[in-house]
Request: fold
Amino acid sequence: MKIEKNNVCPLIKIKSPDGADFFSEHTHLLNNNGFVWFCRFGKNNMKQETLKQYAPYIIIKESGIKEGGVYLAKYTDITETSPDIQFMPSYYNKMNLHISMWFKIIEIKSIDYSLLTSSFVGKTSGGSIQSILKSMCPAFFVKCISTVEI
Reply:
């Protein structure tokens, strides 16, 4: 996966429930099916039209994992309609949160936190990723300041 300098992509913060391993659950389904659905839970502050302008990558950051829990995912589709449950992690069924958007992930890789903080800034503010991650906003757009290849 390669993100060119000045490309923009969404960064979505998530909180996996206790006992759930976000990366292994999604990777397992991806390896078995060729894709997996990732759900963006909670109030939606991003529009599909805008996301499609910046496709095909999203950065996912797990809250509560200091300097870790960062993933780069490539997706092919976005929908607000719940997909077939066999293509989503089973722990999603236990989450009592508002479903706002589904991403059909075809590739996902863990990336170093230092790569995230050194290669990206806030799209509108130019602010540091560390500052942005401390905000209450669950999702925002970031701009790549140097080409990144994972």
Observations:
- The first strand starts at residue 2 and ends at 3.
- The beta strands are 2-3, 8-14, 36-41, 57-62, 70-79, 99-110, 120-122, 139-144, 148-149.
